[in-house]
Amino acid sequence: MSSSTSARNGPVLAAYHDLVARGALTPDPAQVEAAGQLDRVLHDLVARKPKRVFGFFEKPAHGARGLYLHGEVGRGKTMLMDLFFAAVPFAAKRRVHFHEFMDEVHADISAFRKSPRGKDDDADPIEAVVKPILKSGLRLLCLDEFHVHDITNAMLLDRLFSKLFAGGVTLVATSNVVPDGLYKDGLNRQLFLPFIALLKEKTVVAGLPSEQDYRRLKFAGQHVFAFGTGPEVRDAMDQMWLRITGGEPGAPAVVESIGRKIHVPLASMGAARFGFSDLCEKPLGTRDFVRIAHQFDSLVIDGVPQMDRTKSDAAKRFILLIDSLYDRGVKLAASFAVPLEQLGADDKTAFEFQRTLSRLTEMQSEEYLAKGLRDAAPSDAE
């Protein structure tokens, strides 16, 4: 079967049509075309499966040509990446937000430079970072929200990805900008141009020119906060969840953060649903909340209680959580036991809580709900 034929009948497109048939998605020709492109990558990856040589599996010398999928916010890029990643039938794959991936690269470079080997004049930190990645057998790297605005990243991407591509890694990335728009007007941008050329060579650049912002449509005209503790409040949140997910009930998921796993009770269609205790009564910090804000574009939080002095630690985490969601532009639906102005009653957090209340008020507004996600890099704060 040819690559083009498989793209018309592949698992990504089949999963997409299944969501349309269930009413979770509205059929969109641009999304259908993008799903076909992802199926082409999937077909080529499977065709290049590792061969057994002398009892060991040997990765192909060259990866499949990847995909760089760009389009405005809310057009379905993350949803399509979800379908693609789930359809990839091997374990040698990784999906991560671009900024998080680059954070890891910089941390590994820093650690190498402090090591005895890193002090040698001929030491190559990029080689040191890439070597264990390739040794792990990674075949597919999926990067969400590829966006370059930092000169430190800009200056090392060409060498970093040259080595990854040479090692047989295939790249699939989503972005809000075309490759030629990356690091636009950046300092010493001419030094970045070889990477753009490399990106175009190693991936098919495809647009997702959908006219509808589906994320905005889900929240248009909705009351995103509910107040009280009765069954009608839970029902309101259930209905809001199904609206956000297109009727998909969701399933448990995991967010990886600093080498540990954060349990997500329900996740579906780029959204996650938590109870207040899942986020604010567990040992989570800013870094964890930023990870969550980068993995999901919408959150539903059930059962936010009144936070008196007995819940001081939970109140502090709640403040950090709302800051992370607000800075990122994540859409929030939540149920509260009491009106917003009665939420905080702890002198230790009173000042910070006023900012949180102001942000919660803004997060209900049509103006906030109409905006796209902000390109905020993960913070190093804890």
3D structure, described in words:
The chain has 382 residues and is an alpha/beta fold. The chain folds into two domains: 3-207, Rossmann fold, CATH 3.40.50; 214-370, 3-Layer(aba) Sandwich (Rossmann fold). The chain contains 15 helices and 13 strands. The chain has helices at 3-9, 11-21, 29-47, 77-87, 98-114, 125-135, 151-166, 193-202, 214-219, 231-245, 276-280, 286-295, 312-328, 350-363, 366-370; strands at residues 51-53, 56-58, 66-70, 93-97, 140-144, 170-175, 203-207, 225-227, 251-257, 260-268, 271-275, 298-304, 331-336. A six-stranded mixed β-sheet has the order 8-13-12-11-10-9, sandwiched between helices. Helix 2 packs antiparallel against helix 3 and helix 2 crosses helix 4 (77-87). The longest helix is centred in the first third of the chain and has 19 residues, at 29-47. It is globular. Residues 377-382 have low confidence and may be disordered.
Descriptive keywords:
single chain, 382 residues, alpha/beta, Rossmann fold, six-stranded mixed β-sheet, globular, disordered C terminus
